[in-house]
Here is the input.
Amino acid sequence: MLLRYLTSIRAFHTLKSTPLNQTKKKTLSPLTQSVIPKDIRPAYPDATPAAAVRSKLVELLGLEEVPAAIEYTIEGRQEEDGLCTTRIRYENSLGETVPGILTVPREESVHQRPGIVCVPGTGGTADEIAHPRFSMERKLMGWARELARRGFATLAISPKGCEMRRSSLAEWATENKLLVPYGRTQMGVLVEETLKGARLLAATPGIDPNRIGLTGMSLGGNATWYAMACAPWIWAGVPVCGGVGSMARVIHHTAADHTADRHSAYYFIPHLLRHFDHAAIVAACMPPRPFMMIAPTEDEDMPREGVDELIPVVSEAYAEAGCPERFQVRQPEGNHAFLVEYFEWMADWFRLASRS
Here is the structure.
């Protein structure tokens, strides 16, 4: 099934219309001709075989090799609540500063600890997700620090694309269009920052370099799954509301609902659909590593149809790899939000993966 999926461009781009009169709980919006035609097809389609999907994805993202040794600056250390927190910063390939907070349990462990890079959404920061208090306020706070309380080493970062690091939406859009002629993308820089964080964690004493995981919400969810797909040395991943399902579905769903501005241009990777859609990427690049998606059924950023179409393709790939239990999709009712329940699913996934 997977081979046929990868070798047939039609499998990526022939989309089924849904009657308009069905309720939102049963289906999302139909594919309609709004900004672009609903029957648009890729120019110069070039189906990519499974073995070449990762290298093609890296090329499309404009991602250069992430060095094993990452230079970073320590800005301060603090010990409290049984944890050691270190403020750090490092640079991406554009010379921009990536702020981060490394949190490690003080209690000595017989074995090296797993490390997890934690990436917030567009409105989040490293400080928010590493906040001392784990609580659900306007949004979920302190979840990276809570993972550390549960025995993981964590690195919370303020990523490329978050509001704290961009001066305006106009400048963000301008940067995107100026990078593209150079074969570079903002998504690629976001992935690079995430993987540099993973390298930094892997080089930290007391952390198992073979058990470095990724997780994040929204923008951070995109960082999680794209970075994991690009880097076979990542151990496990859990994107939450991470936009993974189908690029084509997102394009047509948002056009139908006039909500295309929920995703800025960084999300729409040039030429991606000439080669594959999300299901092909996940199926070719993730197995046999533990990978869980948390995809609420009414998430405004990722139509349920795309997730539903991805599940059987990726499930078969994991079954063929001999580890069907290492792929899981949680589809709770609800929209684009990170809830305490989702955090518990994510934490349990990493805990179980660390024992396997």
The CA atoms of residues 67 and 143 lie 28 Å apart.
